[in-house]
From TrEMBL:
The keyword Transcription regulation applies. The keyword Transcription applies. This is GntR family transcriptional regulator. GO terms for molecular function: DNA binding; DNA-binding transcription factor activity; monoatomic cation transmembrane transporter activity. Residues 120-205 form the RCK C-terminal domain. One of its GO terms (biological process) is negative regulation of DNA-templated transcription. It holds the Pfam family TrkA_C.
Length: 205
């Protein structure tokens, strides 16, 4: 993210203020030429003039016509530096927050893409393995227990094809329509996702 660039003259104003705070320029002292300031800080005379204007507006210095620039206040120079620091800290925090928001958006986008990939892979697995069995254990208090597969019309009501019933330690493969479903049994069947929901609803009646 591009950063806001501080005007050069504002930075020079801060440098002059630091000289005042550090007593390199003393209150009451006169700086006799803007060209001297320009040479001291390595900038153009116009940049030095703008920097002096900033400080003059804050009553830190006072341009004296034909006599240079007079230093007025070290305390106001310190306040100016503190305010400039607060502004930089605020800008830094704002920039960090924007960077975090940008990263969060990228992370959410990556998560969305990963989730879409997972759904796609899951769908392909189901298409390639349509006969992968589901398993279901009816609640012990289901009113549909102790009845046969045929009497429950499981295929007609749910679309499920029961391929095995686990009763205790006995696994009954390809149970016929006369096999009963008892409490504690595990039912293995094939079908679609909707079939799973239909089986659950049937035994919940």
């Amino acid at each position: 993210m591009p950063k806001v660039k501080e005007p050069r003259y504002h930075k020079i104003a801060q440098d002059i203020a630091e000289h005042i705070v550090n007593k390199q320029f003393l209150v009451g002292e006169k700086l006799h030429a803007r060209s001297t300031l320009a040479a001291t800080f390595g900038v153009s005379a116009e940049t030095a003039r703008k920097a002096i204007s900033v400080l003059a507006d804050l009553d830190i210095v006072k341009p004296v016509h034909g006599s240079g620039v007079e230093i007025l206040s070290r305390e106001k120079a310190r306040e100016f530096l503190n305010q400039a620091k607060d502004n930089r800290d605020l800008q830094t925090t704002h920039s960090e927050i924007k960077d975090l928001i940008t990263k969060q958006k990228e992370d959410l986008q990556n998560l969305d893409e990963a989730f879409s990939l997972l759904l796609d892979q899951t769908q392909r697995v189901k298409q390639n393995s349509p006969m992968s069995p589901f398993e279901f254990v009816p609640d012990d208090d289901s009113p549909m227990l102790n009845q046969s597969i045929g009497s429950l019309n499981i295929w007609q009501n749910t679309g499920a094809t029961i391929i095995a019933i686990l009763h205790g330690d006995d696994l009954i493969l390809s149970p016929g329509p006369y096999a009963n479903i008892l409490a504690g049994d595990t039912i293995y069947f094939v079908g679609s996702d909707k079939t799973v929901e239909a089986i659950q609803q049937l035994f919940a009646k």
